[in-house]
């Protein structure tokens, strides 16, 4: 779904304040904005901003069936703490899982196919009706994101709203403290980046935060690049 050019310009002009940006998006695109969240180590601040701006906004969570139990508990705790009342599970169809991963061990021998089945395809389908998707991506997260805009227009016309795109790691940390946001319980156990349980390992002090994801494999991304 593409968005009218005047709305895009208005959102760009509203982009300095994350809460204001999301309020305006929800007002101008009623029912047309959804947030994406993994309820991982870095998810709390974006979700707090969504809750302050529009607590009814759909928050799409990829329920791969392979999460740590701590992630599912954190999802419930954070939603309750913030007053988010529209968190939605996005899952692959049971028939697709039965067909393509009957033993549940696809992750071990073809993780790209597993992420495609459990993440990429279900999310593509779930996000089709929306004109704008809110993500927690930031420029500081990766060398590939150094030019990430707050309001991003994709080639198909769908918007990505990245309200924290320009925030530094220090600003994020301070704001998390100021808001008193609960941390994912696995962060304290050495997991600075948290994905599905079979594909996530704790990392040692000083190691790259994402080195515990698909450890030992060349794979570094699940292929969706949007969930923060
Ligand atoms: S992160 Fe691992 S378990 Fe999760 S969908 Fe990807 S390959 Fe499968």
From TrEMBL:
Cofactor comment: Binds 1 [4Fe-4S] cluster per subunit.
EC id: 1.8.4.10
Localization, UniProt: Cytoplasm
Name of the protein in its database record: Adenosine 5'-phosphosulfate reductase
Pathway info: Sulfur metabolism; hydrogen sulfide biosynthesis; sulfite from sulfate
Functional summary from the UniProt entry: Catalyzes the formation of sulfite from adenosine 5'-phosphosulfate (APS) using thioredoxin as an electron donor.
Listed GO MF terms: 4 iron, 4 sulfur cluster binding; adenylyl-sulfate reductase (thioredoxin) activity; metal ion binding; phosphoadenylyl-sulfate reductase (thioredoxin) activity
Domain Phosphoadenosine phosphosulphate reductase: 34-202
Binding site for [4Fe-4S] cluster: 114-115, 196, 199
UniProt xrefs under HAMAP family: CysH (MF_00063)
Family, similarity comment: Belongs to the PAPS reductase family. CysH subfamily.
Family matches, as Pfam families: PAPS_reduct (PF01507)
Catalytic function, reaction form: [thioredoxin]-disulfide + sulfite + AMP + 2 H(+) = adenosine 5'-phosphosulfate + [thioredoxin]-dithiol
Cofactor: [4Fe-4S] cluster
Record GO biological process: hydrogen sulfide biosynthetic process; sulfate assimilation, phosphoadenylyl sulfate reduction by phosphoadenylyl-sulfate reductase (thioredoxin)
Keywords, sorted A to Z: Cytoplasm, Iron, Iron-sulfur, Metal-binding, Oxidoreductase
Domain of life, source organism: Bacteria
GO cellular component, one term: cytoplasm
Active site, UniProt feature: 222
